[in-house]
Specification:
Layout: H1 9-17, H2 22-41, H3 48-60, H4 69-77, H5 81-94, H6 106-113, H7 118-131, H8 134-148, H9 153-169, H10 190-206, H11 208-216, H12 220-233, E1 241-242, E2 245-246, H13 248-262, H14 266-282, H15 288-303, H16 308-321, H17 327-340, H18 345-349, H19 352-357, H20 364-377, H21 383-396, H22 399-416, H23 420-434, H24 442-452, H25 457-467, H26 475-494, H27 507-519, H28 525-541, H29 546-555, H30 562-576, H31 579-585, E3 601-606, E4 609-614, H32 630-634, E5 642-643, E6 645-646, E7 705-706, E8 712-717, E9 720-729, E10 735-744, E11 751-760, E12 764-767, E13 783-790, E14 799-807, E15 810-818
Parallel strand pairs: 6-12
Antiparallel strand pairs: 1-2, 3-4, 5-11, 7-9, 8-9, 9-10, 10-13, 11-14, 12-13, 14-15
């Protein structure tokens, strides 16, 4: 007895759509799946096509349909076109190369590729191009290559896309398709042209040899220029017209291929300059289609070696995009301008006002891009205007922007400040507006700036005093204010401020403020420490309130905060036992010198101009050098086994007191100690081993290199990658020469890059000067630096590294340990 005919696909869809609940829909699906399984078991050829079609619909709804895989293969083997069509569709949806079942259809696809009907051949090409595995591609690549040479445009376009899939799966078969590509671009059919450009793009991206071949031998650029010119100059063509533009999809594909061909190639770039200018000026921008073509044109102009006038035209197009009502277009424009601002700074500057207006956009992603671009545009000429806009933005922006914006303002102000008063006012404004969001180093940096601005001390302490009256919410601001009041409290009560109207403050009023900070619930432990120290300092600045200060200090000798208690106990001891030393110990801080971290030259930046200023060289000391506080800091690095770095300077210059590379856990200035100070008898002396100072720093490394030592990746994070390569000398096998290579895969350069290192005391280490301080974006270049390590005991090498650099307007810093040195580098 035969089963009744199964329902049609249309009826199944209608039935499922009537389901009111998910459970009801599941019940319908399970019932129909059971009927389909029964039909499959009975080998019912009449309704197999209908059942597989229903199964594919259920698969699209998310229900399991794997039991129909073999039925798809049976339909593919059928001679009826309707069966083949559903069978191939099922294979593309239900099969992939992870299942061995797909290999069973290889022979069927091969037969259908040689079928007499073009539509059957097209089905086979589509399936192979969609889910063909590497084994299938190897077996069937010959048939695809034949169809690529056929005169039938319907098959050629499908064969070209199938060839793309074959190349992705089996790149070594690329050369097989090279002869077939010669005549593809002479085709009139736009479908063939489009797929041909996709195939050529794939070949150029995957093989540098193919790219060079198409540039030189095939003269591909002139052909593409001719096709693109015909597209933009041709009249209305209804079959290819999209919003008044002739085949924009083909134009975009050609522009992308031109970008690949013109990159780092002068001749190819020269050949396409004119057509890119024509596309940029003749494309209609009222519709999104035209904007898409213009955006691809801009990317191509920026990526090839184009003329300066063409680059300005591209940036002007992006400037017009910023005025577009579409948020996506504005975001794309800002992102593109951010990538080009380093190379075409002046051209981007012309659109500064439009970019600043984007800071007021309601879309947060546009806001962030506009903020990053605004910081990139700051220079010595526009610093005042740009800071005014960015400070206004800092006032009104969302909390998630405040930290990055504050960091960017600090960096820009430090680099381009027109005067010290402006610099101090700007940073105080940031602390007042977004003090709780600033980085940890903002407080010491501002304190250093204030200390070095001797003529601004009275003005600064008065401004800070007024800023914290009754408001202790911004803790960094309160910390700076407390420090300044402690240092310059005498200037505050003297009322001798020339920059603005002085205020009359008594000693008791100043102490009232500091005591309020001590007892405020908003004050952190660090802030209370600043306040207590400030009160103690005022005991030498004030004359009438010393007894009150003693009383406050003694109260905190029993504080539950251990840090505060320790400070108070020590200050009490100063009052009671060492009062004769108090005025000397609490005298004003001297001017702080900012030490450069890379070489003996400090970069002084004024209004956008950079001038090297040689640092003052002190006379060499007559005796051996003290280690100063270096060993104390080394203990923080994980034991007392870290060796200082041997400086590369000749012996006629003073030796570094421990070396700035020792300071891997902070920015403490170890090199600023006076070199001529006599060393106490209990402090061990550092003698400079001669092997590193025998002229190696000025000569080639070695002529007898021992090769074969594998390189390692010492650090890879946030787009920054540090690789170590090793060399050993036969004449002195205890010396290992490590060459570091720093690369940057992000879209923006990393500037002010400094690499520092420390090794255990059983080793001796010397860092030579780096090749640059800028790590170029997109892995377009590297920084190299040489490290020499003496390992006389042949112990396993360990190293701790510190990386500092500026990226996207923020100062970055990171520590890492390197313990995976290959044995050949130290044994």
């Amino acid at each position: 007895m035969r089963m009744p005919a199964p329902i049609r696909l249309r009826e199944l869809i209608r039935t499922i759509r009537t389901a009111r609940t998910q459970a009801e829909e599941r019940e319908m699906i399970q019932k129909e799946c059971a009927a389909i399984r029964s039909s499959f078991r009975e080998e019912d050829n009449t309704y197999r096509c209908r059942n597989v079609a229903k199964l594919l619909y259920m698969h699209m709804l998310g229900y399991p349909a794997h039991f129909g895989q073999l039925e798809c293969l049976k339909l593919i083997a059928s001679q009826k076109f309707t069966d083949k069509r559903i069978g191939y569709l099922g294979a593309m949806l239900l099969l992939d190369e992870r299942q061995d079942v797909h290999l069973l259809m290889t022979n069927c696809i091969k037969n259908d590729l040689n079928h007499s009907t073009q539509y059957v051949q097209g089905l086979a090409l589509c399936t192979l191009g969609c889910m063909g595995s590497s084994e299938m591609c190897r077996d069937l690549a010959g048939e695809v290559e034949k169809l690529l040479k056929t005169s039938n445009s319907y098959l050629r376009k499908k064969a070209a896309l199938c060839a793309v899939h074959v190349i992705r799966k089996v790149p070594e078969l690329m050369e097989m398709f090279l002869p077939a590509t010669k005549n593809l671009l002479n085709e009139k059919n736009h479908g063939v042209l489009h797929t041909s450009v996709v195939l050529l793009t794939e070949m150029c991206e995957r093989s540098p040899d193919m790219l060079a071949h198409f540039r030189k031998n095939e003269k591909l650029v002139p052909q593409l220029v001719r096709i693109l010119k015909n597209l933009i100059m041709s009249g209305y063509s209804p079959e290819h017209d999209v919003s008044g533009i002739s085949d924009p999809f083909l134009q975009v594909r050609i522009l992308r291929l031109l970008r690949i061909l013109g990159r780092n190639d002068d001749d190819s770039s020269e050949a396409m300059n004119d057509i890119l200018a024509q596309v940029a000026t003749n494309t209609e921008t009222s519709k999104n289609v035209g904007n898409a073509i213009l955006y691809e044109t801009v990317l191509t102009i920026m990526d090839i070696k184009s003329e300066s006038g063409l680059r300005v035209l591209a940036i002007n197009i992006l400037g017009r995009f910023l005025l577009n009502n579409d948020k996506n277009i504005r975001y794309v424009a800002l992102t593109s301008l951010l990538k080009t601002v380093q190379t075409d700074h002046n051209a981007v500057q012309r659109h500064r006002s439009t970019i600043v207006d984007c800071l007021k956009d309601l879309d947060v992603s546009i806001k962030r891009r506009a903020m990053e671009l605004s910081f990139a545009l700051v220079n010595g000429n526009n610093i005042r205007g740009m800071m005014k806009e960015l400070l206004y933005f800092l006032d009104s922006c969302e909390p998630e922007f405040k930290a990055d914006c504050a960091s960017g303002i600090f960096l820009a102000a430090e680099k381009y400040a027109p005067s010290k008063r402006w610099h101090i006012d700007t940073i105080m404004r940031v602390l007042t507006t977004a003090g709780s969001y600033v980085r940890d180093d903002a407080v010491p940096n501002l304190i250093q700036l204030i200390t070095n601005s001797v003529e601004m001390h009275a003005y600064t302490v008065q401004r800070l005093y007024k800023a914290i009256l009754g408001d202790y919410s911004q803790q960094p601001l309160v910390q700076v204010a407390a420090w300044c009041i402690g240092e310059y409290g005498d200037l505050l009560i003297s009322g001798q401020c020339e920059e603005e109207e002085p205020i009359q403050v008594t000693e008791d009023e100043v102490l009232d403020i500091l005591e309020s900070v001590l007892i405020s619930n908003m004050s952190t432990s660090v802030t209370r420490g600043y306040a207590l120290t400030a009160i103690m300092k005022l005991s030498t600045r004030f004359t009438c309130t010393v007894n009150r200060i003693k009383k406050v200090v003694s109260i905190y000798g029993s504080s539950i905060d251990v840090e505060l208690q320790q400070r108070a106990v020590e200050y009490n001891a100063l009052f009671k036992k060492y009062d004769h030393m108090r005025s000397a110990l609490l005298e004003r801080m001297p001017v702080m010198e900012k030490v450069t971290t890379n070489g003996p030259t400090e970069i002084v930046q004024t209004n956008g101009e950079t001038e090297p200023a040689p640092l003052e060289t002190k006379p060499p000391p007559s005796g051996p050098q003290p280690t100063s506080q270096a060993n104390d800091l080394l203990d923080l690095l994980g034991g007392n086994d870290i060796t200082p770095v041997i400086p590369t300077a000749p012996t006629s210059k003073p030796a570094s007191a421990g070396g700035e590379l020792l300071d891997l856990l902070g920015d403490i200035n170890l090199t600023g100690a006076p070199a001529a100070a006599p060393a106490p008898a209990s402090v061990p002396q550092i003698s400079q081993p001669p092997f590193l100072l025998d002229g190696l720093s000025s000569q080639p490394l070695f002529n007898d290199i021992a090769t074969g030592i594998p390189s390692i990746t010492a650090y890879s994070k946030n787009g920054l990658k540090i690789e170590f390569t090793f060399e050993r000398s036969h004449t002195n096998p205890s010396v290992t020469v490590i060459t570091i290579q720093a690369s940057n895969s992000t879209e923006l350069d990393m500037t002010d890059f400094v690499f520092q290192a420390a090794v255990p005391k059983t080793f001796q280490l010397q860092l030579l000067s780096p090749s640059s301080s800028v790590v170029p974006a997109f892995n377009t270049g590297t920084i190299t630096q040489v490290i020499k390590v003496l390992n006389p005991q042949k112990q396993q090498l360990r190293m701790r590294i510190k990386l500092t650099y500026n990226h996207k307007g923020s100062a970055m810093q990171d520590l890492a340990e390197v313990n995976n040195f290959p044995p050949q580098s130290w044994q």
